[in-house]
Amino acid sequence: MKISWKWLSDYIDLVLTPEELAERLTMSGTEVAAVTRLGATWDKIYVGRIVELVPHPNADRLQLATVDYGGRSLTVVTGAFNIKVGDKVPLALPGAKLIDGHSAEYRQLILEPTSIRGIFSEGMVCSGKELGLSEDHEGILILDPQAKVGAELSEELGDIILDLEITPNRPDCLSVIGIAREVAALTGQSLQEPRVEIRETLGPIEGFVNVEIADPDLCPRYVAGLIAEVHIAPSPRWMQDRLRAAGLRPINNIVDITNYVMLEWGQPLHAFDYEKIAGNKIIVRRAKTAEQLVTLDGVEHLLTAEMLVIADAERAIALAGVMGGADTEVTEKTSTILLESANFDPLSIRRTARSLRLSSEASRRFEKGLSREQPLPALRRAIQLMQQLAGGQVAKGVIDSYPAKSAPKQILLTEDEIRRILGLSFGLERTAAILHSLQCETSVQGQGLLVTVPSHRTDISLPADLIEDVARIVGYEAIPSVMPAGRLPDPSQNRALYWENVVRDVLVGCGFTEVITYSLTSRRRLEKLVPTEPAKMAVPEWMTDLRSQIESRVMPLHMEPLSLVNPLSIEMECLRTTAIVSLLETLSDNLRNIDRDIFLFEVGRIYLPRPADLPEERRVLTMVMGAYRSGRDWGTREEIDFYDLKGAVETLLSRVGLTDYGFVPVIQPTFHPGRTAAIISSWGDVASTRSIEEHQVIGVLGEVSQEVQRRFDLSQRTFLCGIDLDRVFAIASPMRMYRPLPKFPPVVQDVAIVLDRDIPAGRVAALISEVGGELVQDVGLFDVYEGEPIPPGRKSLAYRITYQASDRTLTDEEVKTVHERIERALIKNLGAELRAPS
Q1: What H or E segment, with its residue span, contains residue 165?
Q2: DSSP for 303-360, written as a single string
Q3: Are 56 and 117 in contact (CB under 8 A)?
Q4: Among candidate residues 223, 229, 232, 191, the one with its CA nearest the CA of residue 333
Q5: Which of 61, 77, 153, 650 is the most buried (most CB within 10 A)?
Q6: Is 489 helix (H, G, I), strand (E, B) or coil?
Q7: Rounded to an integer, what distance in angstroms lies between the CA atom of residue 746 and that of residue 748?
């Protein structure tokens, strides 16, 4: 927010320099981003008075102006015709620095005397743009009639502009009086609010208009006043200057007054053309479904039932707290004004402004939460100015619809609480004085102060808020730094965060790059993961169970996502139930520029809806790989496959301490049939019991199906992995088991079996290790065969088993006993048949 130094000085005696005041405000929590001196570069520019105007003898579009600037006069050539004899205007003499008004870009020039169409011009009368005051270059800037002829223009129009960064919790500081309150508290000065005196010359306002609040939950208070016989004209120069200094464009006296009071008090107002209000009635209500309204900017908006409107007896005439309607706009023909000053629900205003993409100075204030006590004083101030500047006749009284008045907030503040938060106390007497400077009322109650919070401080609700105010007015720099006393709490480790960092380190070491994607997505994007025609093939029951567990833990493809009530766009309409969509889109974007070495991962959250509760936020790891990596020779590339991704997963699981895990083939719609595996924990249990329990599925990996690749515009094979990190971290362990190197020789035996084709080779190896116990040191698969003479649906697997003891050399009999036990277990648990060596 920009505030004029001259305007601020109307309400308080400014005893500090602008730089000193900027420092004090910034240190108290109201940051001053910049201090700009308006007119600092004006040299050789004076207040002049037009004493004669004659046509240029050689040009129809030019005229000669004789200008007096304090006992001296000169003649200038000008193309502007908005001036008349007696007007006071800015006069620049040779050597003055001006802005080039004819250039679209900012460019300074130094004025030199010149001959224009045969007439020597000794100076220049200036527009607002040439002085840097506005963008207006159509005519000469007309100064206040009271301006002193011959005075330097910097004395007349010069000002200092404070550019303030107001925090969202302090809407009271979005006003000149609000900043004046802060300055008064910081400097010990007295605030001088403007005196309001109104002459009410018409009958009671109730005879002119009726106000009804149909939805008081969205409009706690509505105040209206009426001013008749107004004269629409430009506002006075002093008001225009202050509006421009604040960044607003002057329009006419009525609209300018509403903007002026909004900047002065922080309370937005709106002026209606009373003659255009049907039925002389104002209704504050929710919009009707599909109701339409054309706002002041000329845009037609389709409204929803959640939006609040100001309506008359027939239709909506304004968007409450956002923008007025074109049908009741104040024009040059307007003679009677109905002035609105109200308080609206901040959440409703914010939703409406965001939904319609229609932000305004009014909505920016309302959505931060304004005081319910502000509408009346702001309305009376605006009525006073309209009576003074527009010659209006004021109706007696105002309509003040205030269904549920709010009581002042009272907070008990004790010295003990101040000392607990700040580490020191200022005493009740000094604390009360500081709070009085902030317009708080206090009374001693027991060992503390009962503080009545002023209505404009909507941000204060707790004792800590008052203590913060006391601290910032005293000055944070005045509070001594003290080392904390007491025993430090024992450090605690966030287990999940620790393992997340381990996951990141391992995957970066494997050549992956971490990405962070949005948690918001759309149903259309999630649907890309489900092919139109899933692969049709016979699937055993246990594999169906695996698929359902994968979809419930890592890839809930058919779960309805949680929708946002007010999404920013259609592409961000719901919370994601899987992060795979984001990773595939990121891979696709990168493949447009790079053709290799694109290995990405994300450690993030997915959000699974729960009935009548907040969604379950599940921690997942998603990994994706392109089809190529850089080759050994410069500029070449090598193709990767499923086992490259599997190797990275094995490296990760081993690093987090998982030793008993395995991979099981599975059919899942997003992946290519036959190139997909589920990741199973407690692999030994699975191998021995031939069952897969729900708690054992921790993830899935494989090659993405061709149809899904096409949907994501992926032109090469893509490998994908999703892991339920919550389950992984629950069984992760930093402990590592070591054993000494063997001293005794091993015994190697082979076993070849024929079994069902869908039994994973890893499951066989796990069973061999379990049955063999400590004597089995290694199990390696060295042969896989399908075809004649092996029956259809069966396969042959051959394993090399290494037997070894740590304390002795094994005998043939010991090895034979264990080997036969393993063969019996394979036959019993897996339905295998022993195959004699060929």
Answers
A1: strand 159-165
A2: --TTSEEEE-SSSEEEETTTEEBGGG---TT---EEEEEEE--HHHHHHHHHHHT---
A3: yes
A4: 232
A5: 153
A6: coil
A7: 6
Tokens of 247: 């960044």
Do the Cβ atoms of 341 and 376 come closer than 8 Å? yes
Q: Tell the residue number behind the tokens 């339905």, with chain if given.
A: 831
Chain position carrying tokens 């224009």:
116
Query: Strand, coil or helix: what is 197?
Result: coil
pTM of this prediction exceeds 0.70? no
CB 623 within 8 A of CB 601: yes
Count of other CB atoms within 10 angstroms of residue 217: 12
Whole-angstrom Cα distance, residue 398 to residue 381?
13
Tokens of 577: 């139930």
Strand ranges (DSSP E) for 522-657? Answer: 574-575, 599-610, 613-625, 628-630, 637-639
Q: If the chain, 838 residues long, is cut into consecutive pieces of 10 residues, what is the mean pLDDT of each piece?
A: 93 93 93 89 90 90 90 88 91 89 78 86 88 81 88 87 93 95 93 93 94 95 96 92 89 95 96 95 94 93 94 95 94 95 95 92 94 96 95 94 90 93 89 94 92 94 94 89 79 89 95 94 90 61 68 81 88 92 93 90 93 90 93 87 93 90 84 87 54 68 92 92 92 84 91 88 87 91 90 92 92 93 92 78
Give the Cα separation of 375 and 192 in Å (integer).
19
Q: Tell me, what amino acid is at 621?
A: L
Strands 108-110 and 114-116: unpaired
Q: Which of 626, 555, 637, 641 is nearest to 589 (CA)?
A: 626
